[in-house]
From TrEMBL:
Keywords noted in UniProt: Membrane, Transmembrane, Transmembrane helix
Transmembrane segments: 6-30, 37-57, 69-88, 100-121, 127-147, 159-176
InterPro entries assigned to the protein according to its UniProt record, in alphabetical order: YdcZ (IPR006750)
Highest taxon of source: Bacteria
Species: Deinococcus seoulensis
Pfam family, one: DMT_YdcZ
Name this polypeptide is given: DMT family transporter
């Protein structure tokens, strides 16, 4: 059972949706500079690094027996991951904005946020809130040209489409209560 409250789960779902909206634009900057497979490697190495830090900080007791080597081995792995990323970043140079490297951490937070929200809200309500927030985030990214994206202003058709999705989501949420 999750210790999240209902309001915390709703907020988590919405923040998760906003992070999903940011993932594509952020990762596309890195992909344009270093290629698809290199970008995927960087994103997953960053996610692994964040996961290792999270594990080491939140694991209440050492795993296994009193002489358990899990944490030291994970920290050695973390140093290796960070070293590889630093070498790659150095080879790419400083031509990328700092947020182009956020993809791995965002992806990891998306997984954690989704799991936490579903644990309290159930799958349908959590995913609906995530998608709604993702659409709002995507509309903001397009409208204001965030993350170096071209500006795509809201127009009556796009606003109508977003409102229809919102209305459908609200009907679905209300039908589930």
């Amino acid at each position: 059972m999750s210790s999240f409250t209902l309001p915390a789960a709703v907020m988590t779902a919405m923040l998760t949706g906003l992070m999903i909206a940011c993932l594509g634009p952020v990762n596309s900057l890195l992909q344009a500079r270093i290629g698809t497979w290199s970008m995927l490697t960087v994103v997953h190495l960053l996610g692994l690094g964040v996961a290792i830090v999270g594990f080491c900080l939140t694991q209440p007791t050492p795993l296994g027996t009193p002489g358990d080597w899990t944490r030291p081995l994970l920290l050695v792995l973390l140093v290796g991951v960070l070293g590889a990323l630093l070498l790659l970043a150095r080879s790419v140079g400083s031509t990328l904005p700092a947020f182009a490297w956020w993809g791995g951490a965002l992806g990891l937070l998306v997984v954690v946020g989704t799991v936490q929200a579903i644990g309290v809200l159930g799958a349908v309500r959590a995913v609906l809130l995530i998608i709604l927030a993702e659409l709002v985030g995507a509309a903001l990214i397009d409208t204001f040209g965030l993350f170096g994206r071209p500006v795509l202003p809201l127009n009556p058709g796009r606003i109508t489409g977003l409102l229809l999705v919102l209305g459908g989501a609200l009907l679905t949420l209300q039908a589930g209560t």
